[in-house]
Records
---
Amino acid sequence: MRIERVAIIGVGFMGGSFCLALKNVYPSMRTFGIDINEQAIEIGKELKVIDQGSTDISELKDFNPQLVVLASPVRTFIEIAQSLRELIDKECIVTDLGSVKGHLVYELENILGPRFVGGHPIAGTEKSGVQYSRNDLFKGKRFIITPTTFTDKDAKSLLKSLWEEIGSFVEEMDPHLHDYIFGAVSHLPHAVAFALIDALIRLSDGVDLFKYPGAGFKDFTRIAASDPIMWRDIFLENKENVVKCIDAYINSLSKLKILIQDGLEKELTLYLEEARENRNKIDRNNG
Amino acid sequence: MRIERVAIIGVGFMGGSFCLALKNVYPSMRTFGIDINEQAIEIGKELKVIDQGSTDISELKDFNPQLVVLASPVRTFIEIAQSLRELIDKECIVTDLGSVKGHLVYELENILGPRFVGGHPIAGTEKSGVQYSRNDLFKGKRFIITPTTFTDKDAKSLLKSLWEEIGSFVEEMDPHLHDYIFGAVSHLPHAVAFALIDALIRLSDGVDLFKYPGAGFKDFTRIAASDPIMWRDIFLENKENVVKCIDAYINSLSKLKILIQDGLEKELTLYLEEARENRNKIDRNNG
């Protein structure tokens, strides 16, 4: 099957970038955008990210997509999937760009059947909004595909090729393992960054600390400028892992606090050295 | 007085960059580097960061510097200041590039007298080592000068002009206020970043999490690649503020955890929205 009609649910930065990437490889690809925000659809059309668009999901029926991509905040997925059932052809593949997989993949599979294939592109920035869409956002980045034993093999292969064609490295992963790993390496850092800004608000007592960003502070807090609705949904949908990671994190930070408070010079040096060494492994592993 | 001979104690990234910046403005400036690491001195000479150098601080006597800059980890300052007293002319100004001011400024003033002027350039990266020195590191950046009522006025003016000539914006600040502010906006974020890596080490149980950096993770953890000895010293010397900030931070993060755990959707949205809004103030305030 050659994909010629793709529908994006959620006309934002991620969905928009996926459309542009597809159109870059397949100039004849037609895209239809659904969003609750009329303005996003207008901008999407102006920027030729989508060819058509509507705030009414039932308009997908006439478009008859061969692939539907859920690109809205993850907590909207279930309701959207329920609506989609009545609207799309039974051959139509459904996938998503969500940062949470785990139980969501199994729930979506229950609703949509084996033609649902979960996915998570490891790309993106703190930016939100379709106006920031880039056709090269996923180039050279990983795309995690999270099939189950129930997933349709052809649907999986087709989706895999599509992502490879737009330049991503596709890696298969169990949906629950995905949520453990990205709970730790992505959701935890975002929680940590949002909380840092919250702490600085509380500590800005008599002095506006936000006037004094130290060196590296802007980079460090950039992810706290991410979309609040998107992140609220990720935190709530991956609650179990996120809470577990925050607990582990508070333990690590409390340990560091005690080393500082008690002036344990040797142990403090070891703690910081071990952290630096492990941080530097990332640069070595990932170019 | 025209400064022609500058000694740097600690031939690293910060001290080296200061030498290069000075030489860029005053090509005839002569620099002498002291370091416990012979290799740093060799590299510094090769790269023409320093003209001369030694591992033996007493060699400063013959060089007869007009300005001495403490650029080593902050916990070495007191001992160095005590040695300096015997070695330098009584007209020689002493300053530092340390990230902690507060009590240290008063202690150094006690040893060196009013010719000591504390300073802290708000610049730098996670890099360490004289080989990374850049003559434009301080250009367009803030330099915090922390005089006391006891500080020599001429020494202060001279230092101020020197930093302005290399392109920094000089801002005066009380030494203790400095430690409160930078405890929150710089030392806390570093503690938070080091602890994040520590937590990921602990959470890497059966799976190597460092193989899966999410989007933004590299930027977010870059500061955890900073020099362990430098940061051990900063944490210990600014212990009171750092511990207070870590406590405030753990409160903020615990609050976020509860909002997630209890699924308090509305409050969670507000928390994340407030964080994003305050984070974005930094971009607006600081270009």
Note: Strands of chain A lie at 5-9, 30-34, 52-54, 67-70, 93-96, 116-117, 119-121, 142-145, 169-172.
---
Amino acid sequence: MVLSGIWRKQDGSKEPQPPAITVKHEKEIPAADIQDLCASVGWSRRDPELIARALANSLSVVSAWEGELLVGFARATGDKVFNATVWDVAVRPSHQRRGIGRLLMVALLEDLDQYDIPLITLYADPGRDGFYRRFGFNTDPYGVRGMFREKDGV
Amino acid sequence: MVLSGIWRKQDGSKEPQPPAITVKHEKEIPAADIQDLCASVGWSRRDPELIARALANSLSVVSAWEGELLVGFARATGDKVFNATVWDVAVRPSHQRRGIGRLLMVALLEDLDQYDIPLITLYADPGRDGFYRRFGFNTDPYGVRGMFREKDGV
């Protein structure tokens, strides 16, 4: 999948365009690239071996690349049957507001829809629910509440 | 694990006690038993083959038995590393208010804690968040909101 056109000026002028964005569906992403992306959005550093194991155990992993640079990432866990949960949607700040988050969500939901999963869930950071509503997600339907249990020190 | 004592009267009298509850950690549970339990709590009927596949793809499955009768169930999905999500906590109405839900949650969290997972999430039905708070779960920390996307017709 190649992102195109969104940098094209409406007047059709031939402004130099940045390299195209490619979306991949492979689980094998170098841990160093993931760490770099996580650092760019202020997430805590994670152990490379743990990253590899978590990706392997994910139901779907999608990533966005500008050439060799990992510029976005998203993944989902689940049972392949009844439910899936979207985690770790991240776009490098230097590449935000270009539609890359949307590309990642579309690619991830395409992956999940092939399993015919009836329920997909996620946890939206404050102010981000509007983004996810565009993909059919709703907050707290039927009064259901998301709850979290964090291990000490995390 | 055997539930004992909760029916013992405080005066020590020898009232006949109901059969003990046994908690199992096996993923192989006959689909007919699951269907029967789900029907008892008003959940929709699920295909036996899909049930077996979902259990096999779960991170942990715990069940409570009174002899041959499945009286409670809970499971979790996840990546075995960074997160897990608790699903389908159910206790047969005839066996509720006996501490079986607590037994199931303790057993499930024991399973998950062996992976050293930093974040465990769940979606609580209306009015059920008090039950989960006892196990360290909180609603919407940091303003994070649970969101759902349901397939048409589900």
Note: The radius of gyration of chain B is 17 Å.
